[in-house]
Structure formats: C-alpha cells, structure tokens
C-alpha cells in the first residue's frame, strides 16, 4: 500500500477517536494500514511528530469552516470570535483533541494559514506582534477549556456532584452563589446532569467559554482604542 502523510494522519485521528490517545502506537497504526512499522518512519520520526501533524490537521479542519479572513464588511472581532468557537466545536468533536494539541509544535504546513490569520488581524488595525500574542493567548484559552470539558466527560458522575449543585442553589446558606446560579440557569445554563451537545452549544460550559472569549476580544479592542488615543494629536 502506498503511504502518504495525509493518510497516516487521518488514520491516526480515527484510531484516537475510537480508542483514545493512549491506545495509539506506531505499531498499531502500521497494522491498521497493513504495513510494517518501519515504513512509517519515512514520514514521521516518532509519535510526537505524528501528533504534531494531527494537531495541524485539526486546525485545518476548523479553518475550513470559518476561513482565514473575514467576509466582506465583517468586523475582525466578530470573525475571530467565530473562528475560536469553530475551533472549540472541532476539538470537541474529536476524542482527546486537547491532549493532542497541547504542547504541539507547528509544522511547515501550518504557516501559510497562520500568516493569513495574522494578516487579517493586522488589516483590522491590530499590530502584527499583538496579533500573534493574541492568537497564542486565545489558543491557550481554547485548549484549556476543551481539556477541562473532556476531562470532566471522562469521569464517572458522582452523587457528590449532584449534591454540590443542589447546595449551590440554597439561597439561605449561599445567597450570592445561589443568585448567580439562578441567573445563569435562567439564561440557558444547565446543571451537572444535563446532556450537553458534543458541539458545546448551550449550557453552562458554553456560557463560560463565550464569556471569557468576549472579555479577551473586548480587552484587545479597548487596548487598540487607547493606543489610537495616545498616538493622536
């Protein structure tokens, strides 16, 4: 069988989706493809290099949804928010995706799209250096949120969680906490026993991510506004 990097990456991702990251080995990947393990080393030196390519594939999968530039007339902040929401949706659709992406090093295949993203932010008035810092910080925020979500989903539910959530709504004992929970639930938040969608659409988890993301974007916009004012006449 003729092998190429794309086939190896797609097969590795499928095996991870089926059995988790810990189950993936180069020997297992070779067996799935009907070849001997040494054949893989023509493409990847080790498992970490393979996972870097898988992470790049996940990013490309997300970018195919939202693109690397805003639509005509679309503000950059609305576009980058959608980019990150699409990224979260993509990561949540694959098992252990946060662990795959955490600590990965970008491959040369990722550089054209990365440059296009920074160019789009720069065209909106974000200095290139700050555009890079923002995308790195937002990427860390994204991965942290996905890792928390996937780690929680891997745990068996416990009676303690349900009891804790019940106590959080006890207005006599915890008045401010109960008021906060009530407010979030009224706006679409869900309790620990609710079935949240794989895409993270709705629910407290989604609300937390969107809130934090909004703060990051608003903060960058405010920073740019202050810089304009400071450089004015």
Low-confidence stretches: 192-202
Q: What's the gyration radius in Å?
A: 21 Å
CATH class of the domain at 71-231: Mainly Alpha
Alpha-beta content class: mainly alpha
**SS field, number of helical segments:** 10
Name given to the CATH homologous superfamily of the domain at 71-231: Tetracycline Repressor, domain 2
The main pleated sheet reads as: none
| H-E order | HHHHHHHHHH
- Provide mean pLDDT, rounded: 87
The rough form would be described as flat
Assembly type: single chain
CATH topology of the domain at 71-231: Tetracycline Repressor, domain 2
Share of β-strand residues: under 5%
| Residues in helix, % | 55-70%
The N- and C-terminal alpha carbons lie at a distance of 67 Å
CATH-derived architecture of the domain at 71-231: Orthogonal Bundle
- Count of β-strands: 0
């Amino acid at each position: 069988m003729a092998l190429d990097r794309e086939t190896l990456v797609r097969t590795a991702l499928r095996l991870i989706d089926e059995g988790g990251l810990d189950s993936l080995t180069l020997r297992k990947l070779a067996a799935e493809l009907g070849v001997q393990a040494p054949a893989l080393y023509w493409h990847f030196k080790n498992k970490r290099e393979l996972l870097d390519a898988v992470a790049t594939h996940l990013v490309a999968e997300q970018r195919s949804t939202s693109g690397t530039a805003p639509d005509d007339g679309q503000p950059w902040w609305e576009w980058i928010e959608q980019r990150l929401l699409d990224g979260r949706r993509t990561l949540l659709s694959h098992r252990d995706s946060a662990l795959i992406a955490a600590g990965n090093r970008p491959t040369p295949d990722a550089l054209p799209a990365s440059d296009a993203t920074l160019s789009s932010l720069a065209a909106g008035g974000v200095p290139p250096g700050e555009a890079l810092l923002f995308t790195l910080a937002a990427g860390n925020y994204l991965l942290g949120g996905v890792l928390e979500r996937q780690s929680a989903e891997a745990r068996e539910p416990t009676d303690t969680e349900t009891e804790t959530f019940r106590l959080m709504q006890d207005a006599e004992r915890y008045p401010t906490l109960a008021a906060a929970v009530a407010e979030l639930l009224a706006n679409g938040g869900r309790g620990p026993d609710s079935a949240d969608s794989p895409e993270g659409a709705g629910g407290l988890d989604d609300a937390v991510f969107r809130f934090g993301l909004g703060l990051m974007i608003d903060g960058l916009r405010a920073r740019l506004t202050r810089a304009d004012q400071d450089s004015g006449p």
